[in-house]
TrEMBL record, chain A:
Core subunit of the mitochondrial membrane respiratory chain NADH dehydrogenase (Complex I) which catalyzes electron transfer from NADH through the respiratory chain, using ubiquinone as an electron acceptor. Essential for the catalytic activity and assembly of complex I. Residues 112-403 form the NADH:quinone oxidoreductase/Mrp antiporter transmembrane domain. The gene is nadh4. This is NADH-ubiquinone oxidoreductase chain 4. GO terms for molecular function: NADH dehydrogenase (ubiquinone) activity; NADH dehydrogenase activity; ubiquinone binding. One of its GO terms (cellular component) is mitochondrial membrane. It is a multi-pass membrane protein. It comes from Monodon monoceros (Narwhal). Core subunit of respiratory chain NADH dehydrogenase (Complex I) which is composed of 45 different subunits. Belongs to the complex I subunit 4 family. Keywords: Electron transport, Membrane, Mitochondrion, NAD, Respiratory chain, Translocase, Transmembrane, Transmembrane helix, Transport, Ubiquinone.
UniProtKB/TrEMBL annotation, chain B:
It comes from the Eukaryota. The chain crosses the membrane at residues 78-96. This is NADH dehydrogenase [ubiquinone] 1 beta subcomplex subunit 4. Pfam families: NDUF_B4. It comes from Monodon monoceros (Narwhal).
Length: 459, 113
């Protein structure tokens, strides 16, 4: 694992010591090379994990997420080039340093063996993200957004620290690989109920669960593009990853405790999808769509069947790539019109036809078109919730319908129809933007050829 | 029009008593706005989207500056909140709980596979 962490840390001296014209080229190229080394992780065993040392391991659940994280760093660097052109040099390098710090912490989170190390790096990812949102966001609401983001997530995860120290005291070690074999069935009692809540709250706030999702639209909308991309694609998946890991030691209590959260996420799925239909702000629409997709992952993680775990991991990877691509597309609109209002930049197919291709592919992936991995994830989740209880099919079907509605609404408003008359002086698309979109959609389409690498450890 | 349902205030009375005066005011405002728009539209050195302050106010009223522009009434907040926020959650909780308990009982008795 040091073969990923040390090069990523070394990207920091690379940014500070590069020549002025070369910081973007150097960092993007080197982070792309590092992401290619992550392909070594494709050698996954089904049940066993690849143990690099006493402190790091990767298995079929963390490997795809790790590959996603490392793939995303060059993409975020490419996306941030344009809005940072006017900044002084030191601030540009600071921004890149924040992204690299975030990347290192994320790599360590996804590969941590010891659960306390997982917790520490999980919390530390909040700090670079907070700095990126509050320092480089564009509207004065970013301060409020940073506050909501930091304190919601912090308050949710403090009980997790208490629960982990309790577990360390009772079991002696928090090494995750040993924990899987030492875990005993939890009897149902009030204190165990509180402990279950303590474990799960951190991840439920991070996912986010419907009732605790207020931080997400604010943080996603106010963050600059790299912040939005990393937030949507990776940070939400930290919650999903944590839930999928921690439920293995919490059974069988989950069957009784999970009902309120299952209902909240099932109903929240429909509520947030419906809110998307009424949004005027493009980034806000994509943020609410993230909540809706993650509610599916929460449902799948709480049901704890093999198919639902496969669906959850597939959905996480698929949503990471799709949502990040949608934010990049929204950012390409924002850079031209300096406004996030959808109706300001409508009918763009006439002006930017190649960008329309990317919009089409992203919206089709978002509505889970076959044969993308979005569909595979959703299908597995829907069939497993159907077997859990037949009536969930009503809610799931309504969600698919509304998801299709708002994805097509987003596509048609931004691309089709009569353009507003004053946007005939838009700058044409840059090759960098096309590369960015292509690098998002090509892994997504290639994964539909071999989805078993993202189906997690129960395949 | 001057009925008990519309308590008279100064603006109401003016528009009713002097309709042509209000129309002329509106015409002046609209022609000023249109002139500013056409100046920007035909200006070759104007680069980018022309800003519409009314649109900016509208988006802020919808997203960030809600409180001055929205008054929560019992119908809009309590009824809607109960109907869409609390009611369905409780309803689906009981639905799924009973369905799941029924299934668990059948599984324990061996009648379901």
């Amino acid at each position: 694992m040091l073969k990923f962490i040390i090069p990523t840390i070394m990207l920091m001296p690379l940014t500070w010591l590069s020549k002025n014209n070369f910081i973007w080229v150097n960092t993007t190229t080197h982070s792309l090379l590092i992401s290619f080394t992550s392909l070594l992780l494709l050698n996954q065993f089904n049940d066993n994990s690849l143990n690099y040392s006493l402190t790091f391991f990767s298995d079929s659940l963390s490997a795809p997420l790790l590959m996603l994280t490392m793939w995303l760093l060059p993409l975020t660097l490419m996306a941030s080039q344009s809005h940072l052109t006017k900044e002084p040099l030191t601030r540009k390098k600071l921004y890149i340093t924040m992204l690299i710090t975030l990347q290192t912490l994320l790599i360590m989170t996804f590969t941590a063996t010891e659960l306390i190390m997982f917790y520490i790096t999980f919390e530390s990812t909040l700090i670079p993200t907070l700095i990126i949102i509050t320092r480089w966001g564009n509207q004065p609401e970013r301060l409020n957004a940073g506050l909501y983001f930091l304190f919601y997530t912090l308050m949710g995860s403090l009980p997790l620290l208490v629960a982990l120290t309790y577990l360390q005291n009772t079991l002696g070690s928090l090494n995750f690989l040993l924990l899987q074999y030492w875990a005993q069935p939890l009897p149902i009692s009030w204190s165990n109920t509180l402990m279950w809540l303590a474990y799960m709250m951190a991840f439920l706030v991070k996912m986010p669960l419907y009732g605790l999702h207020l931080w997400l639209p604010k943080a996603h909308v106010e963050a600059p593009i790299a912040g939005s991309m990393v937030l949507a694609a990776v940070l939400l998946k930290l919650g999903g990853y944590g839930m999928l890991r921690i439920t293995s030691i919490l059974s069988p209590m989950t069957e009784h405790m999970a009902h309120p959260f299952l209902v909240l996420s099932l109903w929240g799925m429909i509520m947030t999808s419906s809110i998307c239909l009424r949004q005027t702000d493009l980034k806000s629409l994509i943020a609410y769509s993230s909540v809706s997709h993650m509610a599916l992952v929460i449902t799948a993680a709480l049901i704890q069947t093999p198919w639902s775990y496969m669906g959850a991991t597939a959905l996480m990877i698929a949503h990471g790539l799709t949502s990040s691509m949608l934010f990049c597309l929204a950012n390409s609109n924002y850079e031209r019109t300096h406004s996030r209002t959808m109706i300001l930049a409508r009918g763009l197919q006439i002006f930017l036809p190649l960008m329309t291709t990317w919009w089409l592919l992203a919206c089709l992936a978002n509505l889970a078109l076959p044969p993308t991995i979005n569909l595979i994830g959703e299908l597995l989740v829907i069939t497993s919730t159907f077997s859990w209880s037949n009536l969930t099919i009503i809610l799931m079907a309504m969600n698919i319908l509304i998801t299709a509605l708002y994805s097509l609404y987003m596509l048609i408003t931004t691309q089709r129809g009569k353009h507003s008359h004053h946007i005939n002086n838009l700058t044409p698309s840059f090759t960098r933007e096309h590369t960015l979109m292509a690098l998002h959609i090509i892994p997504l389409l290639l994964l539909s050829l071999n989805p078993k690498i993202i189906l997690g450890f129960l395949y | 029009i001057l009925s008990s349902q519309h308590p008279p205030n100064s603006l109401n009375t003016l528009i009713e008593i002097l309709p042509h005066f209000a129309q002329a005011e509106w015409l002046a405002v609209r022609s000023r706005l249109k002139r500013e728009y056409l100046l920007q539209y035909n200006d070759p050195s104007c680069h980018g989207v022309m800003e519409d302050p009314a649109l900016t106010r509208w988006t802020y009223a919808r997203s960030a500056n809600i409180y001055p522009n929205f008054r929560p009434t019992p119908k809009s907040s309590s009824l809607l909140g109960a109907l869409f926020g609390i009611g369905p959650v409780l309803f689906w909780y009981y639905v799924f709980k009973t369905d799941r308990d029924r299934k668990e009982k059948l599984i324990r008795e061996g009648k379901l596979d």
